[in-house]
Predict the 3D structure of the following.
Amino acid sequence: MSIQFVYSHQHFVTDVYRISGNNSAKNSASTKFDTAIQGGWADRMARCIFRYHLGDLKTRVLLGSHGYVAQLNIQRGIERRKPQEIMSIKQEFNAKQFNFNKIKHDEIIFEMIKDKKGGSPLTNNAECPQPQKMVVLVNVSPLEFGHCLFVPDPAHCHPQILTKFAIHVGIEAVLLSSDPGFRVGFNSLGAFASVNHLHLHGYYLDHPLKIESKPVKPLCPEKGFYRILDFPAGFLFYAESEEVEKVAQTICEVTDFLVNDNIAHNLFLTRGSPPCVQTQGEKDFCSRKGVRVAVWPRISCFGAKEESAFNVALCELAGHLPFKSKKDFERMTEKDVVDVIQSYLLPEDEFHQLEQQLTEHLLCS
């Protein structure tokens, strides 16, 4: 029987700040969520559950305004499971292909269950306070420390199309961590998702990213919907602990719209500053009490295509670049990275049209 991580609203952490000018953060001590993820992950690494040993990764910040965090992870490019051949954003789940019902039981860290009445975070109690559960398991081909997968009730065999429950728990997972370096993300089919079985990624990256505080333009602020003004072009949502339900619903409306329009997309969830439009005081700029959710619509990639330097997926769009080769890691400049990423983004006129359609859709909903 898997360990259950039972949590409630009272376990969310709100006093998180990024100290301006360096990589450090002012925040509370590690939470039970962080301890459970990190401890479970380290235990599986010690027991050789992973495809390779992940030590400290060679890291450098590329010169330039985007602050790209480049990391060399050769083994992930070599040892990871071959991505499935994806031919449609709406591709149905196929039980004959690899899916998360076929993993070893030792890969499971715990099951996340929300207790709306409050309760102890860790328990072996088999009783389930709510019908839906989120299974958290290690990613056996990790890109960083603590790399895990969030799989909503694997037995339901959902395809890789985002649900309200999945995004809701993804936001709550970030709020359960006191570490501003804990990130969660999602790749749709056609956006470098490698397995067609609903899952989100989670991992720790001990470096600040520009997405945490990028300026935005309000599109439908009453729905928490903004446009990211900096490169790469995308949309932004923001949620604090009291707004998760409402924001998760709106995000799902947007991703449903994208799926129905056959537009591939990536999401990245991270602690971030409130989306103030013009002026921000130092306190607001450094605050990480809420969660920023970036949504990037992009050009679809079908088949089992792989880029030579890096794949443009959730972490790359957010500014974290896991490189597959030492040569690319050492030689690529910010301009080189921008050129690669730009080739996967929607043309400007298509993005502008989509922006108008989504804004009208949310205003009418």
Notes: Residues 2 and 134 are 12 Å apart (CA to CA). The domain at 55-102+158-364 is CATH 3.30.428.70 (HIT family, subunit A). The chain is about 25% helix and 20% strand. Residues 124-130 have pLDDT under 50 and may be disordered.
